């Protein structure tokens, strides 16, 4: 099975969907933060190992507790996955914290701050946005 094959993509998508459902609906561990989601899954071609990328929108302490809770609940999650998905082998789960969403939010905040600073500096110089846009784009 090739890494980018349709079968591989279907399995990864189905495992991601089921892991998200199991984590949000079936796990009762209080360590697992409610804002936990499965961003992506990569199942090896032999179906032995699944890397699950987890995003947790919380502070550092809650993220560490959530990862600890997921690792301890791994046998339960694997059993639930085996019941819901019909695969030859049920992969061993490896949870990896994915910080891409937090990084995107931080970048968005930085962009907003720069835009606000730019707007304030234009107001301080007495420029309005319409004239600066015309200068920027030229007469069309």
Describe the protein's topology.
Blueprint: H1 6-26, E1 36-43, E2 49-56, H2 60-72, H3 74-84, E3 92-97, H4 100-125, H5 129-137
Parallel strand pairs: 2-3
Antiparallel strand pairs: 1-2
Helix pairs in contact: 1-3
Please characterize this protein's 3D structure:
The chain is of the alpha+beta class. Strands 1-2-3 form a 3-stranded mixed sheet, sandwiched between helices. It has helices at about 5-25, 60-70, 75-85, 100-125, 130-135; strands at about 35-45, 50-55, 90-95. It has 2 domains: about 5-100, GMP Synthetase, Chain A, domain 3 (2-Layer Sandwich), CATH 3.30.300; about 105-130. The longest helix is centred in the C-terminal third of the chain and has 26 residues, at about 100-125.
CATH domain class name of the largest domain: Alpha Beta
Strand order of the largest sheet: 1-2-3
CATH level-four homologous superfamily name of the largest domain: K homology (KH) domain
Mean pLDDT: 87
Strand content: 15-25%
Quickly count the helices. Answer: 5
Largest sheet: 3 strands, mixed
Low-confidence stretches: none
The CATH topology of the largest domain turns out to be GMP Synthetase, Chain A, domain 3
What is the CATH-assigned architecture of the largest domain? 2-Layer Sandwich
How helix-rich are the residues, as a percent range? 55-70%
Count of extended strands: 3
Helix and strand pattern? HEEHHEHH
CA-CA gap between termini = 54 Å
Tell me, briefly, the overall form.
elongated
Number of domains: 2
Tell me the structural class.
Answer: alpha+beta
Report the radius of gyration as a whole number of Å: 22 Å
């Amino acid at each position: 099975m090739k890494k980018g094959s349709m079968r591989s993509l279907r399995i990864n998508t189905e495992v991601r969907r089921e892991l998200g459902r199991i984590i949000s609906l079936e796990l009762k561990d209080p360590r697992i933060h409610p804002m936990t989601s499965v961003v992506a899954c990569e199942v090896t071609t032999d179906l032995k190992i699944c890397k699950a990328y987890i995003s947790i929108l919380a502070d550092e302490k809650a993220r560490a507790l959530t990862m600890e809770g997921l690792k301890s609940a791994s046998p339960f999650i694997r059993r639930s996955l085996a019941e819901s998905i019909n695969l030859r082998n049920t992969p061993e789960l490896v949870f990896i914290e994915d910080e891409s969403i937090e990084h995107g939010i931080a970048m968005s905040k930085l962009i907003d701050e720069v835009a606000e600073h730019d707007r304030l500096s234009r107001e301080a110089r007495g420029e309005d946005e319409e004239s600066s846009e015309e200068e920027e784009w030229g007469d069309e």
